[in-house]
Amino acid sequence: MFNDIGALELVALVVLAVLVFGPDKLPKVIQDVSGFIRKIRDFSESAKQDIRSELGPEFKDFDFEDLNPKTFIRKQLTENEDLKEIRSSFDLKKEINEVADAVNGHASDATVPAAVGRAAGAAAGAGGTGPDLLKKGGRPEHADRPPFDADAT
């Protein structure tokens, strides 16, 4: 519950509590707050038990933490056999390396899809290992410029 409170913040809270409630009333306030938290926990546990009993025996494995989307997705990814098979057959690092090699012009045309292979071959045929995206291109010729539309601006 308080995983993200540091030592300095905790000391500041204690000093603030002593200043607000005073050293004589502070133990009673702590006792009342802890009792209140205990009652809330007991109420939530009894509500969970009531919901489980109302759902019936087919939901005996139901876990309320599964309602959290992160927990649900993590559980489905680890327990679903079809997804395990797909994950084992797909090597993301290999795919990324192949795409990077194709972009840089290092891969052979046989392992690269046709469109990527043509683009990499055209860039390599232009005299480099690939397109240099940082260089500014020359001014396009008059025929290459898009038509200017005064009404659009």
UniProtKB/TrEMBL annotation:
Biased composition (Basic and acidic residues): 133-153
Database matches in Pfam families: TatA_B_E
Keyword match Protein transport: yes
Keyword set, alphabetical order: Cell membrane, Membrane, Protein transport, Translocation, Transmembrane, Transmembrane helix, Transport
Cytoplasm is among the record's keywords: no
Record's subcellular location: Cell membrane; Membrane
Residue ranges, annotated region (Disordered): 121-153
Function noted in UniProt: Part of the twin-arginine translocation (Tat) system that transports large folded proteins containing a characteristic twin-arginine motif in their signal peptide across membranes. Together with TatC, TatB is part of a receptor directly interacting with Tat signal peptides. TatB may form an oligomeric binding site that transiently accommodates folded Tat precursor proteins before their translocation.
Subunit and interaction comment: The Tat system comprises two distinct complexes: a TatABC complex, containing multiple copies of TatA, TatB and TatC subunits, and a separate TatA complex, containing only TatA subunits. Substrates initially bind to the TatABC complex, which probably triggers association of the separate TatA complex to form the active translocon.
Family the UniProt entry places it in: Belongs to the TatB family.
UniProt protein name: Sec-independent protein translocase protein TatB
Lineage: Bacteria, Bacillati, Actinomycetota, Actinomycetes, Kitasatosporales
Gene that produces this protein: tatB
